[in-house]
C-alpha cells in the first residue's frame, strides 16, 4: 500500500516535471551538441558547406538569417518554408525575396553523405543562420538541435503570420508575444536588419504623401530620405533594386543598426518605431554596445529557434519534399 502510494506520487511528480520541461521547450527537448553521438561531424560539415556557398555570394548570408525567422514564425521551426509546391510558404509574396534555399540543399547533401537520414532540415536552418552571422563577422552562438521536419506548408499561413514592415511597436510586441517572445527579444531580433536589404515597395509610403501634415515621414532622416527618393521615384521605381537596411556597416553583423536608429536611419516603420516608442527606446540604446548585442542576439535566436518545435515528424531526405 505504502509502496503503491509513493510510487504513484513519484510518477505524478515525474509526469508534472515532464509537462514543465515540455512546455518550456514547446513540445520537445532541444539540446546543445544534439548530434554529438548520432552524427558527430554534423555541425562541422554543415558549417563548411555554408561557408563555401556564402563565400560565392555573400548576399545569401542575410537570406539565411532571415530564413530562420520565416520558418519559425509560420507553424514553428519545422522547415515548412523549404517545401516546394504550388501553394507552399515559399510562394507567398512575403517570401518573394527570401533566399539561400540552394545553400540549405548543399548543406543537406553534405550531411546526408556522412550520416544518412539523421539531421533534420529544420536543424540545418538553425545552424546555417548561426554560420551566416559568423561569415559576416558576428561572434555566433551555440545552436540547439533536435527539431523534426513538418509535412505541411501553406502560402496563406506565411502571409498571415509574417509581419509587414508597416507595423507599429504595439503590433510587433503582440506578434512576438504570441510566440512566447518578449518585447526585448523582439528588439534584439530586429537587430538582424544590421545586414541585408529591402526593396522600394517596403518603405515608399514613408517618402511621398506620408500624411496630411508631412509629405515625408518625419521620423525618417531627411538626408537619407532625399537619397531614397532618388533611388525609389514615386512611379515606375525599379522593383529589383536592393537598398541596404544598415547604411553604416551594411555587410557587418554588428550593433550599428541601433546606432542608425538613433540617427533616424531605420529603413522601415517597424525599425524606426523601436527608437521612437518609449516602451522600446531604452532597449535600443542598451543594444548599441557591441558585446551586449552579440550576446543577447545569440540568446534570442536560441529562443526563436525553439518556437513551435515538433517532437513528432520526420527527417526529410530532401529538404524540398516530404519523404515517400
Ligand atoms: C520585427 C519584425 C520584422 C519585420 C517587419 C521585418 C521585415 C522585413 C522586410 C520587409 C525585409 C525586406 C524584404 C525585401 O524587400 O526584400 C526584411 C529583410 C530581412 N529581415 Fe526582417 N523583419 C522583421 C524581423 C526580422 C527577424 C526577427 C529577422 C531574423 C532574426 C529578420 C531578418 C531579416 C534579414 C536578414 C533581412 C535581409 C534579407 C536579405 O538581404 O536577403 N527580420 N525584413
Ligand atoms: C552530448 O551532448 C549532451 C548535451 O551537451 C551531453 O549530455 C552528452 O553527454 C554528450 N554526449 C557525448 C557522447 O558526448
Ligand atoms: C502544380 O500544379 C500543376 C498544374 O496544376 C501540376 O501539374 C503540378 O503537378 C503541381 N505541382 C505540385 C508540386 O503539386
Ligand atoms: C570581417 O573582418 C575582417 C577583418 O576586419 C575583414 O577583412 C573582412 O572583410 C570582414 N568580413 C566581411 C564580410 O565584411
Ligand atoms: C498601432 O496600429 C494599430 C493598427 O493600425 C492601431 O490600432 C494602434 O493604435 C497603433 N498603436 C500605436 C501605439 O501607434
Ligand atoms: C500624392 O497625392 C496627390 C494628391 O492626392 C497626387 O496627385 C499624387 O500623385 C500623390 N503622389 C504620390 C507619389 O503618390
Ligand atoms: C534595377 O536594379 C537592378 C539591381 O540593382 C539593376 O541591375 C538594374 O539595371 C536596374 N534596372 C533599371 C532599369 O535601372
Ligand atoms: C541624419 O543622418 C546624417 C548622416 O548620418 C547625420 O549626420 C544626422 O545627424 C542625421 N539627422 C538626425 C536628425 O539624426
From TrEMBL:
Substrate binds at residue 163. Its cofactor is heme b; Ca(2+). Ca(2+) 2 binds at residues 194, 246, 249, 254. Its EC number is 1.11.1.7. One of its GO terms (biological process) is hydrogen peroxide catabolic process. Transmembrane segments: none annotated. It catalyses: 2 a phenolic donor + H2O2 = 2 a phenolic radical donor + 2 H2O. Keywords: Calcium, Disulfide bond, Glycoprotein, Heme, Hydrogen peroxide, Iron, Metal-binding, Oxidoreductase, Peroxidase, Secreted, Signal. Disulfide bonds join 39-115, 72-77, 121-319, 200-232. Binds 1 heme b (iron(II)-protoporphyrin IX) group per subunit. It is found in: Secreted. It holds the Pfam family peroxidase. Heme b binds at residue 193. This is Peroxidase.
Amino acid at each position: 500500500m505504502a509502496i503503491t502510494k509513493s510510487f504513484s506520487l513519484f510518477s505524478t511528480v515525474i509526469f508534472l516535471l515532464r509537462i514543465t520541461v515540455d512546455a518550456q521547450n514547446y513540445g520537445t527537448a532541444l539540446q546543445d551538441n544534439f548530434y554529438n553521438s548520432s552524427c558527430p561531424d554534423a555541425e562541422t560539415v554543415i558549417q563548411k558547406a555554408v561557408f563555401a556557398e556564402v563565400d560565392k555570394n555573400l548576399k545569401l548570408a542575410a537570406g539565411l538569417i532571415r530564413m530562420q525567422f520565416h520558418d519559425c514564425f509560420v507553424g514553428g521551426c519545422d522547415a515548412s518554408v523549404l517545401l516546394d509546391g504550388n501553394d507552399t510558404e515559399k510562394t507567398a509574396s512575403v517570401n518573394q525575396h527570401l533566399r539561400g534555399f540552394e545553400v540549405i540543399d548543399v548543406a543537406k547533401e553534405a550531411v546526408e553523405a556522412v550520416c544518412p537520414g539523421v539531421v533534420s532540415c529544420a536543424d540545418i536552418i538553425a545552424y546555417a543562420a548561426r554560420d551566416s552571422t559568423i561569415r559576416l563577422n558576428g561572434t555566433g552562438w551555440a545552436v540547439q538541435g533536435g527539431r523534426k521536419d513538418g509535412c505541411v506548408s501553406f502560402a496563406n499561413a506565411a502571409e498571415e503570420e509574417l509581419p509587414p514592415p508597416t507595423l507599429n511597436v504595439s503590433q510587433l510586441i503582440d506578434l512576438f508575444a504570441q510566440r512566447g517572445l518578449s518585447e526585448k527579444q523582439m528588439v534584439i531580433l530586429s537587430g538582424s536588419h544590421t545586414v541585408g536589404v529591402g526593396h522600394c515597395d517596403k518603405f515608399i509610403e514613408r517618402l511621398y504623401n506620408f500624411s496630411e501634415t508631412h509629405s515625408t515621414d518625419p521620423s525618417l532622416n531627411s538626408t537619407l530620405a532625399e537619397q531614397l527618393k532618388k533611388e525609389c521615384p514615386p512611379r515606375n521605381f525599379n522593383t529589383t533594386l536592393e537598398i541596404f537596411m544598415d547604411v553604416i556597416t551594411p555587410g557587418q553583423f554588428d550593433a550599428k543598426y541601433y546606432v542608425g536608429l538613433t540617427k533616424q536611419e531605420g529603413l522601415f516603420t517597424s525599425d524606426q518605431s523601436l527608437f521612437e516608442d518609449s516602451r522600446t527606446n531604452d532597449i535600443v540604446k542598451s543594444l548599441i554596445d557591441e558585446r551586449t548585442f552579440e550576446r543577447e542576439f545569440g540568446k534570442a535566436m536560441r529562443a526563436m529557434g525553439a518556437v513551435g518545435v515538433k517532437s513528432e515528424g520526420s527527417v526529410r531526405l530532401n529538404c524540398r519534399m516530404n519523404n515517400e
